[in-house]
Amino acid sequence: MTIDFTNVPKHYAARTHEKMKEVLMDPNGIGPAIHYYMIRGGVDQKNITVWEPGTIGGEYIKTYGHYHVGKLDETYWILYGQGVALLQKLGNSDDIVEEFKAIPVKPGDSVLASGSKHRFYLFCDRG
Fold first, then answer.
1. Same-domain check for residues 36 and 76
2. How many Å is the maximal CA-CA distance in the chain?
3. Closest among 108, 68, 59, 109 to 88, alpha carbons compared
4. Which residue(s) pair with 70 in the sheet?
5. Which of 22, 51, 74, 121 could anchor a disulfide with 36, C-beta 3.0 to 4.6 Å?
6. Are residues 69 and 43 in the same domain?
7. 116 and 69 share a domain?
8. How many domains does one find in the chain?
């Protein structure tokens, strides 16, 4: 059997500790080299994000958080672990949060991020 890894770099993206320092409460905290990584399936496929378990300076490992340009919905299905999905929607100014939700999540749950900035704080059992 031959496996073609030609497109692997195109579908794999990692969030390194160096990049995540921008959004950590303690940028000098010690953490893993890669906090989480994404395997992107493209337009017609689902993406998968895998978090490292643990904390950095007492803060759970989380995603970087992002906004979508235009009308793009994103659904997250929780497969393993538990945590909190943080969703915030900005008003007319980037300085004013119009809506904020903290949603506890566990395996089997799904969260729709629609037109909002979102960040996940997920922690998982190691057992």
1. no
2. 55
3. 68
4. none
5. 51
6. no
7. yes
8. 2
H helices then E strands: how many in the chain? 2, 10
pLDDT tens, per residue, the chain with 127 residues? 565 656 666 788 899 999 999 999 999 999 999 999 888 776 666 778 888 888 899 888 888 887 766 667 778 888 888 888 888 877 777 677 788 888 888 999 988 877 666 666 665 544 3
Q: What is the pLDDT of residue 25?
A: 94
Cα(65)–Cα(50) distance, integer angstroms:
15
CA separation for the pair 93, 119 (Å, rounded) = 19
Residue 86 has which token pair? Answer: 């943080």
* Model pLDDT, residue 127: 36
Distance CA 117, CA 100 (A): 10
Distance between CA atoms of 125 and 80, rounded to whole angstroms? 9
Short-list 83, 7, 75, CA closest to 52: 83
Answer for the pair 122, 110: CB distance below 8 angstroms, yes or no. Answer: no
Do 14 and 54 belong together in one domain? yes
Q: Around Cβ 1, how many Cβ atoms within 10 Å?
A: 2
pLDDT at residue 18, rounded to an integer: 96
